């Protein structure tokens, strides 16, 4: 291949990095802004959950359909459409003046991200082969991963100097650069053999997951047995079951359910989904504790999240060596037990707890997440034959994102329920009391406005009680998954001979 053509391919790969970096940033950059949003937009805990989950629900439900759409219609044009949607959503979020508009913008961001993530990876085989393909996929994955530690720091710095809309505005220059670079550099590619998009099944998946999350988020407000909660939960589950049945009966399904017959894929997916659930629930609660209860600045909160992000990276990198020496099963079980230990340590956190303890359990949690997520994901991909690697990896990403959405919904609602039940306010005006019951940020604002340190202390105690209950549930879940899924997880990934000859498929 000519040198100019080779250079063009690598420049095209660089253009893909801009879109994936934006998606990676968006996973963590918003968490440090949640306390600010709670005050500036008067958002309740349930509304904060929706601001986070609107993005994840859309991303999880549309990952597979968006990838298929790119295969059928042309990956370049679909990728450009995805970036345009993401950019428009960021602009809308920047100008949002109400919680409803921001939630809608976040959902639209999820639609754009659902296109950018799978299609960016899918174009690589059309430009690279052999060892170059493996290297290209690794670079794209690293580009997205960089956003994880960068998000809290960048978000905190922006909130220190600008208004909360800046955490969305910062995406626009990267999106514009990526859009025009892709338009000029990326070749068009298609895969006409890919399964057709199924609109009814896609609609059932999106609506089902959204309804389920709605029921879980609104439960602390309406009651766990209220009609709205039950209709949302049961209706959502029914639609998800309908989606699964439609795929099982389809001659050319979007989701290959036969993958779950493989032990590594089944239990690896269970472990990765559970780890994602715990991680996203933690990232939802901890910034509120650090910023509202402990009074740290947004940038200080971003800095204090680094032990968790650092632990995640160290655990993920170290997991490869541990798995090679002790086996994947032992590494995954150790990671889950380590996560449980971190969760148990977190239950001892109260208002005024020094950061020494908090930083310790954040680091332990991150290491545990990394040690369980990475080997589980690697073993799943190693077990997939080359012709099913793309759909298998996309399905696992969908399950992980679904776990994250459920984690924010369930764990956030547990925290909210305990907070409401433990909150013991001094006599306050009815409107002020209602604001204090909605969220700990509302309680802090009310206490400051009325000069009531007793109200603030009561709210802080109630919030840490709720956070402690969440981490106790997380510890139990991690132990249950460790002993239920761990022993069934293969000691070593069992790649077929065909697969061993197609390592790029495994990397993808």
Automatic annotation (TrEMBL):
This protein's record includes keyword Manganese: no
Keywords: Cell membrane, Membrane, Transmembrane, Transmembrane helix, Transport
GO annotations of cellular component type: plasma membrane
Keyword Transport: yes
A Pfam family per the record: MFS_1
Membrane topology: Multi-pass membrane protein
One term of GO molecular function: transmembrane transporter activity
Transmembrane portions of the chain: 48-66, 78-96, 102-124, 136-157, 163-185, 197-217, 223-245, 265-286, 298-319, 326-348, 360-381, 467-486
Compartmental location: Cell membrane
InterPro entries hit by this protein: EmrB-like (IPR004638), MFS (IPR011701), MFS_dom (IPR020846), MFS_trans_sf (IPR036259)
Domain Major facilitator superfamily (MFS) profile, residue spans: 12-493
Name this polypeptide is given: DHA2 family efflux MFS transporter permease subunit
């Amino acid at each position: 291949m000519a040198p100019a053509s080779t250079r063009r391919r690598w420049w095209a790969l660089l253009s893909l990095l801009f879109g994936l970096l934006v998606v990676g940033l968006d996973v963590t950059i918003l968490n440090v802004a949640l306390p600010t949003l709670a005050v500036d937009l008067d958002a309740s805990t349930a509304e904060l959950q929706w601001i986070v989950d609107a993005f994840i629900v859309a991303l999880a439900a549309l990952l597979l359909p968006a990838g298929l759409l790119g295969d059928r219609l042309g990956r370049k044009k679909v990728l450009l459409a995805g970036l345009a949607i993401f950019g428009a959503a960021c602009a809308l979020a920047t100008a949002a003046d109400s919680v409803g508009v921001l939630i809608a913008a976040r959902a639209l961001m999820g639609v754009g991200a659902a296109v950018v993530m799978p299609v960016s990876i899918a174009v690589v085989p059309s430009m690279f082969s052999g060892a170059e393909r493996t290297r290209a996929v690794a670079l794209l994955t690293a580009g997205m991963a960089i956003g994880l530690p960068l998000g809290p720091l960048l978000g905190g710095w922006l909130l220190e100097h600008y208004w909360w809309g800046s955490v969305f505005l910062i995406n626009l220059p990267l999106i514009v650069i990526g859009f025009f670079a892709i338009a000029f550099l990326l070749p068009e590619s298609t895969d006409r053999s890919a399964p057709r998009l199924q609109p009814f099944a896609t609609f059932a998946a999106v609506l089902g997951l959204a309804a389920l999350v709605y029921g879980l988020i609104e439960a602390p407000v309406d009651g766990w047995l209220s009609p709205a909660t039950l209709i949302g939960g049961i209706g959502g589950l029914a639609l998800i079951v309908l989606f699964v049945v439609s795929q099982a009966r389809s001659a050319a399904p979007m989701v290959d359910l036969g993958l779950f017959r493989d032990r590594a894929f089944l239990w690896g997916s269970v472990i990765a989904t559970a780890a994602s659930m715990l991680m996203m629930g933690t990232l939802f609660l901890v910034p509120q504790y650090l910023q509202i209860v402990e009074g740290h600045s947004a940038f200080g909160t971003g800095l204090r999240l680094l032990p968790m992000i650092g632990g995640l990276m160290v655990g993920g990198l170290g997991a490869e060596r541990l798995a090679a020496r002790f086996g994947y099963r032992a590494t995954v079980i150790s990671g889950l037990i380590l996560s449980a230990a971190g969760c148990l340590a977190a239950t001892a956190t109260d208002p005024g707890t020094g950061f020494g303890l908090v930083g310790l359990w954040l680091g332990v949690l991150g290491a545990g997440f990394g040690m369980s997520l990475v080997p589980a994901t690697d073993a799943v991909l190693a077990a997939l034959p080359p012709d099913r690697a793309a759909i298998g990896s996309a399905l696992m990403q969908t399950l992980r994102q679904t776990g994250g959405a459920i984690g924010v919904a369930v764990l956030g609602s547990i925290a909210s329920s305990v907070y409401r039940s433990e909150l013991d306010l001094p006599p306050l005006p009815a409107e002020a009391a209602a604001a204090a019951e909605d969220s700990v940020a509302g309680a802090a604002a009310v206490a400051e406005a009325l000069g009531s340190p007793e109200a603030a202390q009561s709210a802080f105690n109630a919030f840490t009680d709720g956070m402690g209950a969440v981490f106790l549930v997380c510890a139990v879940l991690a132990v249950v998954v460790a002993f239920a899924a761990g022993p069934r997880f293969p000691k070593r990934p069992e790649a077929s001979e065909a697969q061993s000859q197609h390592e790029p498929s495994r990397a993808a």
